[in-house]
Design a protein that fits this description.
Order of helices and strands: EEEEEEEEEEEEE
Number of strands: 13
Number of domains: 2
Strand order of the largest sheet: 6-5-4-1-7
CATH superfamily of the largest domain: SH3 Domains
Shape: elongated
Helix content: under 10%
CATH class of the largest domain: Mainly Beta
């Protein structure tokens, strides 16, 4: 699924830095959220970037989130794999762009609903946990940036930055 949220298209969500295990790494900047997209250049660990958009990723196996960034110094804009961006800020996502995503009192569908969020709502990731159900569904505790509401959302509705959970 490729999700683009027009309201967030070029608006900075947060400022952060690029990270890598090897301090000499070159972190590819891509034209789209895949490793097959054209290379636009690269960044280095410690480079400051603004977060612009998020994408859940695609393909077989584990999906790696991608984050659209704008480099503070050069102004270059492109996509970087999520595990190279240090952030706890993300957005809610769903296959149906009109979905209401339940905010729950705890990490389970049996917990009381505290309200709901909408696709594209900006949230801060506070905690990640495996749910008590037999499928061990992942849950993410979030805080909405606008309302400051806090609660749990099923993990498949949150593009979780790999540097966090």
């Amino acid at each position: 699924m490729t999700a683009v949220f027009p309201g967030l298209a070029q608006t900075a969500i947060d400022q952060t830095i690029l990270v890598a295990n090897d301090p000499n790494s070159r972190i590819n900047l891509r034209s789209g959220p895949t490793v097959n997209s054209a290379s636009l250049g690269y960044g280095l660990p410690g480079d400051q970037v603004s977060l612009i958009d998020f994408n859940r990723g695609s393909g077989e196996g584990p999906r790696v989130p991608w984050i659209k960034v704008k480099f503070s110094k050069s102004g270059a804009i492109g996509w970087i794999r999520g595990d190279f961006v240090k952030t706890d800020i993300t957005i809610l996502t769903a296959n149906d762009p009109n979905s209401r995503i339940n905010l729950r009192n705890g990490p389970s569908v049996s917990e009381d609903s505290l309200g709901y969020g909408l696709v594209g709502d900006r949230v801060k990731v506070l905690e990640c946990q495996t749910g008590p159900d037999q499928n061990r569904t992942p849950w993410v505790k979030v805080q909405f940036l606008q309302s400051q509401a806090i609660g749990w959302i099923r993990g498949d509705f949150v593009i979780v930055p790999l540097t966090y959970c």
